Amino acid sequence: MDRKIRVLVAKPGLDGHDRGAKFIARALRNAGMEVIYTGIRQSPESIVETAIQEDVDVIGLSLLSGAHNILFPKVVTLLKEKNAGDIIVMGGGVIPVEDISYLKEKGIQAVFTPGTKIGEIVDFINEKVEKRNK
Amino acid sequence: MTFPDKIVDGDIRSIARGISIVESGGIESDNLLNELYNRNCSYIIGVTGPPGAGKSSLINLLIDEFKHHFRKIAILAVDPSSPFTGGALLGDRIRMQQHAMSESVFIRSMASRGHIGGISGATKDAIKIVSAAGYDLVIVETVGVGQSEIDIVKLSDTTVLILVPGYGDEIQVMKSGIMEIGEVFVVNKSDKSGSEKLATTVKWLLKENYRNKSYLPPVILSSVTNNTGIEDIVKAVLNHKNYIEKNGIDRDKIQERIKDDINILLERKINEFIQHHLKYPENIEKWVNLVISKKSTPYEIIREIKDNMILDIREDI
Fold first, then answer.
1. Is A81 helix (H, G, I), strand (E, B) or coil?
2. Environment class of B104 (CB within 10 Å of its CB; exposed 0-12, middle 13-18, buried 19+)
3. Could you count the other beta carbons within 10 Å of the beta carbon of residue B208?
4. Which residues from chain A sit within 8 angstroms of residue B25, using beta carbons?
5. What is the value of ipTM here, to two decimals?
6. Residue A91 belongs to a domain with what CATH number?
7. Cβ B85–A50 below 8 Å, yes or no?
8. How many domains are contained in chain A?
9. In a domain, A1, yes or no
10. B167 versus B10: which is more confidently predicted?
């Protein structure tokens, strides 16, 4: 048995700044994970559908436009509606510190802002996925 | 409802899980495939060609056209795994994301996981999962291939080979092994210069050399940018489908695939059996040391362990 960790990296909403998302995608690949990258301007609905079809363990959402308080929780809600609430959701991008606790309350399990060391994100995923698949 | 029943019922989450299970292999995968065997009723199209030829973008457009002819379409898109980290960046899906919400389309990205023939070891099993779930068309997109990755032929009923201008002269085309595998040839990026010339060269080569005398593959010019040639590709695929069904080639292909499945399972069993009796891999270090200290050679070791193994097996029986 060789179960690989699968991660969906997606950018919801309208901003086109994908450097961060691409950096994360590559870094997670280099950490041995299988990363599905969907590109920019995805709706929460299509992100959730993609996550289910791709059977991912984790969804990484990246947003720099300021709509995170709406779009990140929307993804979590839709996952629950689709009976896929077990998929881990994390977020990143330009997120004001004062919003982080709200997002966590809404089910986003971690928020990584600029300057985060990539090892921290890799450790977070490894740890969470191990717990989830137990 | 049991898990295999949920797959047959078309439950998306179960289908997706099922593919992960066959990708991971092991006894769980064997049991699932055993339950779902002989349910395949899909037509399988393989799409292959060099990296950047436009395979994903073409498939994206082909989906809309194929929807007129098939009820449910599954796409299995294979991208390479890193040989160093085992990770993979699966990006074929970006070009097809407009179909993410379509209820009749299922898209799954697969990493090649060390398999070198252009697909992953589990691709043929993933086909069985989506096939059991009622997808009557399965499109398999290979990793970008070069000159000899032709595993896709065994899996597919129709293989579509996508070429683009700018990959060298006609000698490159002539020597390339992938030239022998297509049943529909597409010269994509026909808006670029050199595409007409490439199409002419390919047509000429096929006429002279194609292995099958009763079927000559068409060569179709297409452009994703200008949205041209898409209908022609679909027509050519359906034409070939017609041809293989009329001539019973579809049944031959199914026989070959079953043979392949049995061979792979048999090989695995034989390997496990022999490894058990050889105490492999526990012994490999010992053997390497015998060779390093010049006490033996790999040839002598093999001769000796073969004899010992036969004795061991006799005792066992």
1. helix
2. middle
3. 8
4. 1-2
5. 0.93
6. 3.40.50.280
7. no
8. 1
9. no
10. B10
Tell me the nearest-neighbour CA distance from B113 into chain A, angstroms: 10
Exposure string over B106-145, b if 16+ CB within 10 A, otherwise e: bbbbbbbbebebbbbbbbbbbbbbbbbbbbebbbbbbbbb
Question: What is the bridge-based pairing of β-strands B184-187 and B219-221?
Answer: parallel
Buried b (16+ CB within 10 A) or exposed e, B247-281: eeeeeebeeebeeeeeeeeeeeeeeeeeeebbeee
Select the residue of A26, A36, A45 nearest B109 (Cβ to Cβ). Answer: A36
Question: pLDDT-derived band of residue B116, with 50, 70 and 90 as boundaries?
Answer: confident
Q: What's the pLDDT tens digit per position in A43-87? A: 999 999 999 999 999 999 999 988 999 999 999 999 999 999 999
CATH 3.20.20.70 fits B3-247, yes or no: no
Specify the domain boundaries for CATH 3.40.50.300 within chain B: 3-247
Residue B62 confidence class, pLDDT cut points 50, 70, 90: very high
A11 and A62 in contact (C-beta within 8 Å)? yes
Whether the pLDDT of residue B38 is over 90: the answer is: no
Domain that holds residue A82: 6-132
pLDDT band at A28 (very low <50, low <70, confident <90, very high): very high
Q: Is residue A39 part of a domain?
A: yes
User: How many angstroms separate the CA of residue B123 from the nearest CA in chain A?
Assistant: 14
